[in-house]
Amino acid sequence: MKKYLALVKLLFVQQYKARAVYGTKKKRAGAIALYIVLAVCFAPVVISVAVAMYYMGKISNGNVYIGTFFTLMCQGLVLMFGVHAIMSNVFIVRDADKLLYLPVRAHVIFLAKLTVAYLNELITTAVTLLVVLLPFALGAHAGVGFYLMLPIALLLIPMLPMLLGTLVAMPLSALVNAFGKNSSVKTVLRILIYAGIMALYMYLMYGFGFLTGSDGSIMDDPEGFITSVLGDFADRLENVMPYFHPDYMLIVGMLATDIGTWAKGFALSLGENLALFALVLAASLPFYRSMLTLSVEDGASRRKKTGKEQYKLHNYGAVKEFMLNDFRRTIRDAQTGFQSFAGIIMMPLIVVLMYFMLGLTSEGDSSFLDLMRVSDLYQVIAPLVILVYMSFIGVGTNVLGLYPVSRENRAVYILKSLPVPFDKILLSKVLLATAVMSASNLVTCVLIVALFGVKWYYGLAMLAVMLLVGFGAMCVTTVLDLKEPRIGWENFNSGLKNAKNSWIAMLISLLSGVALALVSVPFILLYALFDGGWYFVLLMWLFDLALGVAFAAVAYKVMTSKSAKYFERIEV
Amino acid sequence: MIKLYNVSKTYAKSMTKAVDDLTLEINKGEIFGFLGPNGAGKSTTIKMITGILTPDSGTIELNGINIADNPVAAKSLVGFVPDNHEIYETLKGTEYLNFIGTMYGVPPAELRSRVEEYAALFGLTDALPDMISSYSHGMKQKLSIVAALVHEPKVWVLDEPLTGLDPQSAFQLKQLMRKQADQGNTVFFSSHVIDVVEKVCDRIGIINHGKLVAVDTLENIRNNDKVSLESLFLTITSDGESK
């Protein structure tokens, strides 16, 4: 037990370990201010969800099926992010050589790793519980039993996604590992798998959650309308939710008004979760052992034994060579590859799902998308809305541009020792991040034109604006990372991906979107007021482009002016 | 030629000076051995010479170029072999050498001939198409050495270069150091292996607690004190510690 606990502590702490290497002795009070600004910016979204959940609880009167559905929704999020974490932290082993010589049995290491994965998921669960389940219970006027069981629910809710994640991660890890030597293919495969899981989650959640079924009008009787829609929703869930029995029993217990049902729900949920855990453990331990063996033999097997082999030497320009080198290193690395490139699938995937959602119809009716298309304003507003959305999602999810210096980790000294101006190094990193983001933007724009019927020239305009905004935003995030890089991380996901820069990037993306909207809205109003003058639309896009150019130019100037100073401060 | 004038460095997270008022001059055609116990300031000095760290005070010149005023020109003179093996693990050996060659502006034909020459010398040719992550400790060290030589540096800086090398490669490296010095280049290397320093170096410096406590030719040191370099080193550095 002592060894197990020591391992858990080591693995848990180690994943967050990254040291600040900037040479300044000043304390940064600005960080607190930043978090306050971020909280203010994102609070409306969180509060809106919580309020919606409160009313769901109130109107549905604490319906257990709807409660179970929301629990499943939270678990789906945990599962979606957890599968990859389990794959990379548990099964795709990188630290075998550090752990195998210890006098600890393999199953203890495996249990410790699973525990760390569980602890990580506990954090996500706590957030979702606070925003989703707690307001739902408050709205439903749940009894004291709910609050008594809340801490236990916090411990139980991540169990199911973690166990499902383990079961899913095993064949996927084996599949990824089957590609052996080609680490780039492995990364691409992992991204595709991630996209598949995400699409499945969204499809299931939207599929269940799409609210239909009222004959009345929301204008005449809003509460009656919503009650009717929720009633229909609960009816559909009634046939499905009991199959997710541990969750169902947990919610039955939590929302119970008598102690007997409360105790039964608690006992059954706990027992079923533990039984599932035992089953998964029994199934996955032999698999973990085989992966461990493979990982130790992997290094030697990757060396080719074909004797003398031809190799190519070339000489590109410094920026191109930097970009190529950076791209190769990132995509081939099991940790950085997935994290850096998975974000690019997000936008196209959501666009496709949005298309299906907006295109849903009841029999014989027009879809919401059809109704929107009829309006004259559609071609003016739709590209802008999607542009703002692209700016918000694109910048925030482009991990490649968030940690360009921290990604170098301990090898950052190489960049400092090379006879290349620092601004050139940074430019190459910004260009790489922008290029990857632009690939995603291109696919998104093609989809927008093809699926949403947006005119192709608006698609091109969106692409051009996003290119400029993306370049500017990447300059800002690059200089921020250069200012305070985090070196010495062992786990890119935990050590960096969720660090301060990710939040700053979200803030930048939010501000970019707001700025674009503010610049464009007056022209849309003029277009609507003056009977659809095309020149207002042209002017809107010209102003958006000008804003993009100005932002990119200023951000680039700031980055280059700070590059030498901040690079010199890095102490490695 | 390497010149350090009153160079000092304190790390941001530390209160003590890692290097304290170091003044040192290493001439062209000279192999200079830099000795000192762990944490004495050897690597910090080397990192300042190679431009990885910026001194708090003092100046560093490489062949007359002040590294603070013209870092790119100064760095292009240097070939650096680091003491750690943190090189780009997910690149192939050839890709890494291409990268270094491009950064130092080496024409492809010259890069090819130098890579072939040095890789053959260290028995690394067959491994070059493989991923660096599959290399052993010693192979990574050999790759660092080859990478440091592909642009024919005027100043060769090596931090603990013999660690992990097999005897044949260690011998080749010592020969190369001599060859570089004979061609008029400057070789600056740190080592814990006093025997090697005695055999290879023209001059040595001993650093302790960030201060240069001795610098002279091996001949003078031996003649003056009539003791071995090892006992001299132990005496000087233990004195330093007792202070």
Protein model, in words:
- The complex is a heterodimer of chains A (572) and B (243).
- Chain A is an all-alpha fold and 572 residues long.
- Chain A has 2 domains: 62-135 and 142-296, no CATH class; 341-358 and 367-483 and 498-569, no CATH class.
- Helices cover 78% and strands 1% of the residues of chain A.
- Chain A has helices at residues 2-15, 30-60, 64-91, 96-99, 106-139, 144-156, 159-178, 183-209, 222-238, 245-254, 259-302, 318-332, 334-341, 346-358, 368-374, 378-397, 399-402, 412-417, 422-452, 456-483, 492-497, 500-529, 534-569; strands spanning 19-20, 486-487.
- Chain A has a two-stranded antiparallel sheet with strand order 1-2.
- In chain A, helix 1 crosses helix 5 (106-139), helix 8 runs parallel beside helix 14 (346-358) and helix 19 packs antiparallel against helix 23 (534-569).
- The radius of gyration of chain A is 26 Å and the shape is globular.
- The model of chain A has no long low-confidence stretch (mean pLDDT 80).
- Chain B has 243 residues and is of the alpha/beta class.
- Chain B has 2 domains: 1-77 and 157-243, P-loop containing nucleotide triphosphate hydrolases (Rossmann fold); 86-152, no CATH class.
- In chain B, strands 6-7-8-3-9-10 form a 6-stranded mixed beta sheet, with helices on both faces. A 4-stranded antiparallel beta sheet of chain B has the order 2-1-4-5.
- In chain B, helix 3 (93-103) packs parallel to helix 5 (137-149) and helix 4 (108-121) runs antiparallel to helix 5.
- The longest helix of chain B has 16 residues, at 167-182.
- The mean pLDDT of chain B is 89.
- The chains are: A mainly alpha (572), B alpha/beta (243).
- The interface between A and B is large, with 43 and 51 residues.
